[in-house]
Structures are given as structure tokens and as C-alpha cells.
Amino acid sequence: MSVAVSTATVTKPDDPAPLVFVVDDDCSVRESLEALLTNEGWQSETFASAEEFLSRPRVRAPSCLVLDVSLPDLDGLELQPRIADRIDMPIIFITGHANVPMSVKAMKAGAVEFLTKPFGDEALLDAIQQAIARSRATLRVEAERREQRDRYALLTHRERQVMALVVSGLTNKEVGSRLGISEITVKAHRGHAMQKMQANSFADLVKIATTLHQPIT
């Protein structure tokens, strides 16, 4: 492989360092990729099989997976659905025997890139940059959702009732009638809910209420 100009993203001191996983049964390929990634400033871990990779505990840091299609026992395309829940770890496929149906299947399932060996260093590094950027964005969204759910847990039962009804489109008067409380009391509970949820506007509250129902991977 040719020597490429460093393109590794500089992380903030408080950000977890990105990690690039490589799964390929060819030892020379693993060693070459590990050397390339180290030269670019990336942390990496290599595995000779899908099973070996699956035994590795999941990480909560920006990451991506460079995955060979042809692997013993469980191949790359078979591994992909097994780790579909790891949306914070985009996949970059590499193969020496590509065909259109294979690449289409991988990309439809969410792969970032499908590279055919031999490929240039810059093509792989560019794909890794995109994958790590996607991973960071996904982790950021997940962290925000967790914070929202932690804040939601601090709401009283009545505040949750009021929040659910007002974001459904009911007026304060209608909410009060539904719950058997005064409109002034509804406004108070609504205000407390917005404050605890750190919603700056009613639109923010509606958006937060919507994301609360979305799953966290």
C-alpha cells in the first residue's frame, strides 16, 4: 500500500479516542492495515474471524468496522445482520471478489463503503473518516436521548400526565378538564415539566416528547 498523508481527525481531550476494528482472515492484510492505521494515529484492533470479533465486548466510543467479506465459518455478509443493532459502529466492507449483488446487499444494510482489493490507502482512510464521523453523530444523539430520559424520570406523575396531554394538542383548559384540575394548576405543572426537561419552548417540549419514545441501542 502507498504511504498516505495523515487525515485522522483530532479529538477533543474529553472525547473517547476512535477505535477501528479490522476483521480479516489474511494475516498479511491485518498487519498491513494495522500499520497503516497506526501511522495515521488511529487506534485499532484486529481479528482473524467473525466469531473472534463477536467475543469482544461492545465499546461505547466512536468506532467503525473494516470487514472482509470472505471469512471462515461466518462470513462478513452473515456477520452484518448479527451486529445490526450496533448503529454506532458503521461497517466498511473489503473483498477480493466483489460482485454487484453482494455490494448492493451490503450497502442496503447500511455499510459505509464496499472496497475491492487491492484498494488505495486514501480510499480506505476516507471511508474510515466518514464512518467515524457517523459514529460520533450517532453516539451524540444516543447520549442526548439518555439525558432526556434521565430528566423525564425526575418528573412527578402529574407533570408527566400534563406533558403528555399538552404535547398531544390539548389546550391548558382541556387538560385541566381531563384531569379535574384548574387551568392555573395545569400551567404550573406544564412550566415545571418544561423546566425539568430543559425545553426552551413548547416546540422543544414536543420534540423531546417524540424522541423519548424512540429506542436507545
- Whole-number average pLDDT? 88
Helix segment count? 9
Proportion of helical residues: 40-55%
Shape: elongated
General description of the model:
The chain folds into 2 domains: 125 residues, Response regulator (Rossmann fold, 3-Layer(aba) Sandwich); 59 residues, Winged helix-like DNA-binding domain superfamily/Winged helix DNA-binding domain (Arc Repressor Mutant, subunit A). The radius of gyration is 23 Å and the shape is elongated. The chain has a 5-stranded parallel sheet, sandwiched between helices. The chain has 217 residues and is an alpha/beta fold. α6 crosses α8 and α7 packs across α8. The chain starts with 18 loop residues before the first strand and ends in a 5-residue tail after the last helix. It is built from 9 helices and 5 strands.
What is this structure's SSE topology?
Elements: E1 19-23, H1 27-39, E2 43-47, H2 50-54, E3 63-68, H3 76-82, E4 91-95, H4 100-108, E5 113-116, H5 121-152, H6 157-167, H7 172-179, H8 183-196, H9 202-212
Parallel strand pairs: 1-2, 1-3, 3-4, 4-5
Helix pairs in contact: 6-8, 7-8
Give a short synopsis of this structure.
By secondary structure, the protein is an alpha/beta fold. 51% of the residues lie in helices and 12% in strands. The protein has two domains: 19-143, Response regulator (Rossmann fold, 3-Layer(aba) Sandwich), CATH 3.40.50.2300; 154-212, Arc Repressor Mutant, subunit A (Orthogonal Bundle), CATH 1.10.10.10.
List keywords for this structure.
9 helices; Arc Repressor Mutant, subunit A; Rossmann fold; disordered N terminus; alpha/beta; about 220 residues; five-stranded parallel β-sheet; 2 domains; about 50% helix; about 10% strand; single chain
